[in-house]
Amino acid sequence: MHDKMSKRKERARLAREWEEKQKDMTAEEIAAMEESIPEWKRNAIVIASDDEDEEKHRGVFGRAKDRVSNKINSTEAAQKFYDSEEYKKVEDYRKEYKEFKSELREQVDASHNPIVQASS
Questions:
Q1: Could you give the maximum distance between any two Cα atoms of the chain, in Å?
Q2: Which of 2, 53, 75, 100 gets the most CB atoms within 10 Å of its CB?
Q3: Domain boundaries, the chain
Q4: What are phi and psi of 57, to 5 degrees?
C-alpha cells in the first residue's frame, strides 16, 4: 500500500513539474525540446496518471456505466446542457475543486506533523 502511494505521489510530482515547465515555454521551445529527444525515447517517455491505473481494473459495472453515460451524453438535451452557462459554471467549480484538492494533497505530503503523516 505504501509503495503504491509513493508511486502515485511521484507520478503526480512529475506531472506537475512537466505542466509547470510547459507553461513557461513557447511553442517553439516545446517543439525544439521534443526534437532533441531521440526517436527511440519519444514513445518511451510517458507519465502515467491514476486514471490509467484504474482503467486497467474496470469491472463489469464500471464498463456498463461508461456505455450508459456515453449514450446519455450523445443526446440532444445533454448537448444543450454542455453548451449552457450553467455547465460552464460547473466546470469552473470542478477546476477549482481539483486545484484545491491537489494543493491540499501537496500540503499533507509535505507536512512534518506526525499526526498528519499517520493519518495520510
A1: 52
A2: 53
A3: 1-57, 75-120
A4: -105, 25
Q: Is residue 76 a contact partner of residue 39, using CB atoms and an 8 Å limit? A: no
Residue pLDDT, tens place only, 59-97: 888 888 888 988 888 889 888 888 899 989 999 999 999
Task: Please identify which residue in the block is written with the cell numbers 506526525.
Answer: 114
For the chain, the DSSP string reads -HHHHHHHHHHHHHHHHHHHHHHHS-HHHHHHHHHHS-HHHHTT-----HHHHHHHT--HHHHHHHHHHHHHHTSHHHHHHHHSHHHHHHHHHHHHHHHHHHHHHHHHHH---HHHHHH-
Cell readout for 12 is: 503526480
Q: Report residue 116 as a C-alpha cell.
A: 498528519
